[in-house]
Amino acid sequence: MTENIQSTEFDPEFDEKWEDDFSTGDYERAERAALRRVAGLSTELEDVTEVEYRQLRLERVVLAGVWTEGTAADSDASLAELARLAETAGSEVLEGVVQRRDKPDPATYIGSGKVAELRDVVQATGADTVICDGELSPGQLRQLEERLKVKVIDRTALILDIFAQHARSKEGKAQVELAQLQYLMPRLRGWGETLSRQAGGRAGGGNGGVGLRGPGETKIETDRRRIRDRIAKLRRELAAIKVIRETKRSRRVANEIPSVAIAGYTNAGKSSLLNALTDAGVLVEDALFATLDPTTRRALTPEGLPYTLTDTVGFVRHLPHQLVEAFRSTLEEVGQADLLVHVVDGSDAMPESQVKAVREVLAEINERNDVPMPRELLVVNKIDAVGDLGLARLRHLFPDASFVSAHSGVGIEELKVRIAELMPRPEVVVEALVPYARGEVVARVHRDGEVLSEKHTESGTLLSARVRPDLAGVLEPFATNGSPA
Hints:
four-stranded parallel sheet; GTPase activity; GTP binding; nucleotide-binding
């Protein structure tokens, strides 16, 4: 008996079509999902007397926060955001507790009595990690781990872990590693004198002797020195990458192409908006900090004038200062832009707090670089997920904003028109009679300038256009109104 075996050879036409249908964002999403943990599929053995068995599962965490200022809604929103961060990092959130205090306890972050209650919650839920909604000092971290008997991390370490998972480019990985090392440096913990190579007391005495004399460095001191060396190397690498970035930016500046930077809160839809405006095909995912590496794409105004759109890293409440420092070269794209498109998540319960958090980080960048911030255009995204009452509230909160849905395309064309209106326009008005033999000059005026009028005469094309200074110099030999105005 013979069987028909289907050929497994690749069809070139199908393979080419598959390649065309997939964008860079699709490839990145497939890469992230290539190996992942799935919760709820445990087949743990009941009898483990003969087999040592360990379950592969999501990390189970309990959240702990301190409410020091603002309303109860602000505190709940902060803890809910911490839960989303934990889920993005690959954890399963079991419980969350908040303590009302004037300020965090200097020894244990939360009060010593609440530490005992938190310990009971950890034991009852079977959690193996506690995440605190704030940045812990090395002493607080050590005290909590000793009392809770589980791993303890803070908000900063959690965000750094997400950045480490999502960084793709060489620059992004170097920036994240630099931020992690800066965070780790004061929190190194070692075994103290047991790892010391220093001889104590006189040779031959009770605390020292032959074989114990050495250079005097403990293991923790050696680790610190290595971290400092690695930080110095990363800074040199980032400085070299910054030169490349500035070279690319200088080419755009030399060509006088306007630049637009897209900034905003994480998961507000910045990458979705970039895709909607330029068909960039970058990764879009309903997760915090899904994209870290800046993406620059070329776009055209409705009149056909070119400009660039750059998607930057997202912001969050209490963004770690290590990240602001490490991503400074990337965030400089915002300060160097001609227009800032500030994207806000309209479906968020408190969008005004998002706007405040982003503007605080931008003000910090402005203060460090001593560069005035560009003109801001507020764009409220995800209006398709908001009801009529919510949309009316948003219009009251942000009367000058543009309201769009990058997912459905609502308001995108109106946004393109408004971006074109706010971008710097050519300043020099020129009237020129260009011979028909110089058609490339006319084409360049149409491409890089704003044609006010055009008339074909016997001797050439009579143009009245608004152009930039470099193009005005090209048109000067053909000017009919003397020198360019």
